[in-house]
Amino acid sequence: MMQNKRPGFPARMDWPQGQSPKPAGPAVGARREAPPPVPQGLGLDSAAVRARMVQRLAASGISSAPVLAAMGAVERHRFVDSALVNQAYEDTSLPIGLGQTISKPSVVARMAELLLGAEGARASGGLGRVLEIGTGCGYQAAVLGRIAREVYTIERLRALHEKARDNLRPWRLAHVHLILGDGMAGYPRGAPYAGIISAASGDDLPAAWCEQLAVGGRLVAPTVGPGGQQVLLVIDKTPHGLKQTVLEPVHFVPLKSGIA
C-alpha cells in the first residue's frame, strides 16, 4: 500500500544499491506555487524573448496549450550559466557542467507534450504524478511542475542536484520533489506514475521504470536504436501490456548508474 507521506522539497537521499530509499520530511512551503522572481540579467525583455520562443515552438508543431504556456512561463535563462544567458532562448542545448547539458526547448516541449498524450492523462483531463530521470539544472522539472500535479525528479550527480535545488528554490514549487539517487532504479516510493521521462539515453531501458509506470501511463525516453543512433521511444502501459513507439532521432547524454 502506497504511503501518503511524500518527500518534501528538496529531498536529499542516498541509499545502497538494491534498497528502497527512506522517505524524507514533509513538504516545505505554505503555497503550492508563488509568483516567479522578476527577470533580470539579460539586458532585454525576457518575457518578449520567451514569447518569441513559444511562437517558434508552435510553428514547429507543438500544439498543447498547457505545454506552450509552461514554456512561456519558465525563465530558461535562470537555469544556465551567466555567460550563456544570451543563448538561453535559442533552440539549442547548453552545457551545465560535469559533462551534462540543458536540453533544447523544442525537445523539452516535445517530451512534455508526449506525456500529456498518454491515455490516462487524456482520460483524467491532466497529468498526475510524474517521475523525471536526470534533474540536471532543474529546468525540465520546472516545466513539468506547470503541467503535472506532482513531480519527482532524481539526479545521480550531487553537484547538479545542489544546483537544481538552488535554481528551483525561488519558485517555491512545493509539489516538485528533488531526490539525490540512482535514477536507473526509479523511485518506487512515488509509484505508480502517470508519466516517466528520462533526460539520458541507454542501450536498454531499466525494467524498474516500466514496473513503476501506472496502467494508462506513458514513458518517454531516448534509447539507442539498432543502428547505434539515439531515438525517442514512447512506451504506453495498457491493461494488455506494453506498447512501444519509436519516434525521431535525438541526442542525449549517456544514462549511467550510481551516485557521484
TrEMBL record:
Ranges for region Disordered: 1-40
EC number(s) given by UniProt: 2.1.1.77
Location in or out of the cell: Cytoplasm
Keywords: Cytoplasm, Methyltransferase, S-adenosyl-L-methionine, Transferase
GO biological process entries: methylation
One GO MF term: protein-L-isoaspartate (D-aspartate) O-methyltransferase activity
Protein's name in the database: Protein-L-isoaspartate O-methyltransferase
Organism of derivation: Paracidovorax wautersii
